[in-house]
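Support request from a user on the community tier.

User writes: "When I paste my structure tokens into the form, the page sometimes reloads and wipes my input. The last time it worked, I copied everything first. Here is what I submitted, just in case something in the input itself triggers the reload:"
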């Protein structure tokens, strides 16, 4: 069966790879499928029924729920389901992930690869690499689904969580009030809520964790900037001592294996703060339900086993919802469903490289720049380097410019007063260089944003350009992601080209693992 729905060949690497309209479509379709199947009615319209469409499960980390729900989803769909044995594969002979997938891609006309990896950003990279490779091989581009990549994201868990919340709320999207309890520091499923909960028009979030396990501030900021009302509490005791208790609680396991010695010593206290106790039961609002991405730690469950048979138990049906939502995810990406989608599709980000602006030239009678004590007759002068920064930082920036641009030529440099009292700037004079190529200009803009580039002709400034921070920094040998778990981290030798995308004034995120870097930290010097 040839399927050509509008999601065909798309990938799900992070939650935001689906727009809000697309996420809501996924939930609507999963609801329709679940209700139709439960009523015993015909579900054929959801099936792919094509053994040339392969669903390949590649799990390099342990999993029960995600792997088995995807495996069963593939079978339901009537696709060819393969489970790759990562433990005995040539990954152990240093084969790259990209090479391995190229081979598996050759086994079928159309493919959807589902990957759980320790490395972060793998699916974003593969989606990019196979856009080109599929074109060369004249085959349809495969889809990639991130089934959990290190500490980064687990988008399909987020989708089944939101589906479960919608079920509890009778499919009303107006308002949600949710408490998140446990290890909010390490848990990728609670971090994803900063994006996933945006499907609700009004969001109240209560974060319950002792300070050592609290939600990283950038996720709290992200929630607030998404319009969520956020409150924080250090323990369940403290939370239940106030009146406004959420009807939805989302627990997570304490990931003590990721914590240092100092934190481990405090494990009993940390657990106690976020473990539910019998005498709390009377303080919960009517209809309250608990959720958990699972697995629970059987020795120290934050939701103790005595709660399993109470109506509070939302986590078992939540886990089964992974089956319904994952059927729909594959059905969308295979092109089987989606023709009836209405709304906005996720848009690829666009970048406008306008980091060079011509600046006005001020007339002066005197020669304007010098190399040491001699005026520059012909050449280039880089001015306003790190203007206004502390003097040490200006010297560091001069040093970085010289090293990265390999300016080992006759020249001079220094730190000087700027026009305003107490403000300093760096200057590099380069009499032997008469032009800069686009790549070097972009490097310069990304090392010393705000600097000016002066072209000197006959001892006068003939042209002046002000350089600002580029929206993307990529394609340079001297940059790398500093997250050791990123697929692009050089020591992994996966051949992934480094790329950073500007997020704030001086902050960049890695395109793959989304780790934030200050702009100076992206450079390898
Ligand atoms: N929630 C979750 O990802 O479970 P598994 O690790 O068992 O797949």
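"...and here is what came back when it finally went through:"
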């Amino acid at each position: 069966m040839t399927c050509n729905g509008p999601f065909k060949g798309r990938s799900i690497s992070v939650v935001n790879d689906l727009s809000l309209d697309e996420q809501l479509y996924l939930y609507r379709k999963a609801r329709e499928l679940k209700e139709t199947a439960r009523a015993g009615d015909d579900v054929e319209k959801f099936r792919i029924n094509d053994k040339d469409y392969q669903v390949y499960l590649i799990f390099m980390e342990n999993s029960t729920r995600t792997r088995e729900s995807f495996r069963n989803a593939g079978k339901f769909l009537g696709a060819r389901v393969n489970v790759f044995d990562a433990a005995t594969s040539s990954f152990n002979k240093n084969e790259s992930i990209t090479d391995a997938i190229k081979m598996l891609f050759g086994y079928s006309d159309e493919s959807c690869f589902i990957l759980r990896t320790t490395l972060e950003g793998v699916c974003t990279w593969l989606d990019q690499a196979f856009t080109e490779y599929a074109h060369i091989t004249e085959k349809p581009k495969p889809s990639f689904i991130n089934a959990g990549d290190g500490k980064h994201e687990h988008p399909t868990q987020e989708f089944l969580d939101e589906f479960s919340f919608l079920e509890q709320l009778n499919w009303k999207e107006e308002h949600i009030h949710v408490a998140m309890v446990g290890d909010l520091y390490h848990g990728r499923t609670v971090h994803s809520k900063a994006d996933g909960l945006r499907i609700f028009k009004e969001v109240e979030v209560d974060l319950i964790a002792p300070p050592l396990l609290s939600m990283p501030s950038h996720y709290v900021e992200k929630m607030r900037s998404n319009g969520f009302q956020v409150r924080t509490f250090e323990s369940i005791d403290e939370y239940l001592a106030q009146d406004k208790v959420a009807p939805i609680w989302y627990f997570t396991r304490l990931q003590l294996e990721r914590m240092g010695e100092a934190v481990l010593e405090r494990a009993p206290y940390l657990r106690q703060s976020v473990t539910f106790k019998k005498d709390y039961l009377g303080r919960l609002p009517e209809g309250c339900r608990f959720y958990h991405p699972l697995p629970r730690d059987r020795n120290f469950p934050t939701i103790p086993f005595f709660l399993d048979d109470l109506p509070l138990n939302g986590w078992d049906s939540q886990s089964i919802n992974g089956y319904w939502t994952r059927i729909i995810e594959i059905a969308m990406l295979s092109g089987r469903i989606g023709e009836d989608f209405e709304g906005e599709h996720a848009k690829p980000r666009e970048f406008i490289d306008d980091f060079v602006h011509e600046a006005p030239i001020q007339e002066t009678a005197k020669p304007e720049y010098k190399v040491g004590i001699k005026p520059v007759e012909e050449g280039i002068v880089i001015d306003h380097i790190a203007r206004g920064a502390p003097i040490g930082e200006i010297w560091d920036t001069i040093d970085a410019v010289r090293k990265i641009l390999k300016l080992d030529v006759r020249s001079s440099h220094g730190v000087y007063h700027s026009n305003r009292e107490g403000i300093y700037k760096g200057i590099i004079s380069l009499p032997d260089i008469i032009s800069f190529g686009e790549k070097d200009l972009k490097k310069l803009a990304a090392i010393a944003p705000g600097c000016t580039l002066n072209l000197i002709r006959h001892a006068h400034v003939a042209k002046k350009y002000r350089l600002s921070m580029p929206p993307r920094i990529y394609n340079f040998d001297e940059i790398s992601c500093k997250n050791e778990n990123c697929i692009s981290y050089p020591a992994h030798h996966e051949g992934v080209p480094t790329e950073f995308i500007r997020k704030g004034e001086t902050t960049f995120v890695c395109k793959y693992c989304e780790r934030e870097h200050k702009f100076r930290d992206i450079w390898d010097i």
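Agent notes: The reload is a front-end session timeout and is unrelated to the input. Residues 473-522 form a domain with the SH3 type barrels. fold (CATH 2.30.30). The chain has 14 helices and 21 strands. Escalated to web team.
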